[in-house]
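Hypothesis: this fold can be encoded by more than one sequence.
Test: take the structure tokens below, design a sequence, compare later.
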């Protein structure tokens, strides 16, 4: 078990190190129109949602700090108004790294209570994992909520709803009511195995439950913004949900048989899905370990 855990943690650190050593000058921001006044920006890190209009700009997540100028340039091409609000879907740095820059520029940062708590505390180093330092004051959410909050802006209604113990314990799904657009943050990785941050309160059951809630909200025309991957449809989310439920069932069966984490990983409970889902994001070993640890916590 220890070898599996250390291997998984080292893979996570390798990803963080790659981000730190990235040539940010090569990052390009893509702009994708989803509806009138609503866009998705791609670049490095989590997909960004954008609302633009006469009141100003609302961002959903803000990727990494070094590319804030590129994000601001992309926003300037959409509107001459400033970014007034930043809504964080959760606390990870590839979604909140630009908080300090946008906060200092005057944006009000909004997130679930647990996002502020985790950003404020940071994360201590562990075996094979670097520490995440506490966020500076300007990067912290100044408006927090427990269950949900609605932002009325640009003639739009953005419903922000907490989804308990999904990707983390602070995830929110944002519904652009009337526009048929939903931003799911890292609860949804479109096309590859997700990162379920068990150490931050995440769980596979929470991810599946949130997928079910969003599927009930969506129809065939709904545009779903995943945390990572291409813009998705309801059918894409349904396939993701079915994959996770099947892998969860396989892992649960192995746990019921008394298998250790190392034995469960060796049994390859994801093998039927690896060709379609194992080409990006988390490896089969990592998603298996995350599901195992969320079903049988230490």
């Amino acid at each position: 078990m220890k070898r599996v855990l250390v291997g998984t943690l080292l893979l996570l650190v390798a990803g963080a190190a790659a981000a730190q050593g990235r040539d940010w000058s090569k990052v390009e921001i893509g702009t994708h129109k989803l509806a009138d006044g609503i866009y998705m920006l791609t670049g490095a890190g989590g997909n960004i949602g954008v609302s633009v209009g006469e009141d100003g700009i609302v961002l959903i997540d803000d990727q990494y700090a070094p590319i804030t100028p590129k994000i601001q340039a992309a926003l300037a091409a959409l509107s001459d108004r400033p970014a007034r609000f930043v809504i964080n879907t959760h606390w990870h740095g590839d979604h909140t790294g630009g908080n300090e820059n946008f906060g200092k520029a005057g944006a009000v940062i909004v997130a679930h209570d647990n996002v502020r708590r985790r950003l404020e505390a940071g994360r201590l180093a562990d075996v094979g994992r670097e520490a995440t330092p506490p966020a500076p004051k300007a990067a912290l959410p100044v408006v927090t909520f427990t269950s949900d909050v609605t932002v009325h802006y640009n003639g739009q209604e953005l419903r922000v709803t907490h989804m308990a113990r999904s990707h983390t314990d602070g995830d929110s799904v944002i519904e652009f009511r009337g526009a048929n657009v939903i931003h799911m943050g890292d609860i949804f990785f479109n096309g590859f195995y997700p990162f379920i941050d068990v150490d931050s309160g995440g769980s596979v059951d929470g991810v599946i439950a949130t997928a079910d809630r969003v599927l009930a909200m969506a129809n065939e025309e709904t545009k779903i913004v995943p945390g990572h991957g291409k813009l998705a449809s309801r059918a894409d989310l349904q396939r993701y949900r079915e994959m996770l439920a099947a892998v969860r069932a396989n892992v649960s069966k192995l746990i019921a048989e008394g298998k250790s984490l190392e034995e469960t990983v060796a049994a390859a409970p994801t093998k039927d899905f690896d060709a379609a889902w194992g080409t990006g994001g988390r490896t089969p070993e990592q998603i298996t370990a995350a599901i195992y640890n969320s079903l049988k916590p230490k």
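The mean pLDDT is 92. The first helix runs from residue 2 to 20.
Hypothesis status: open.
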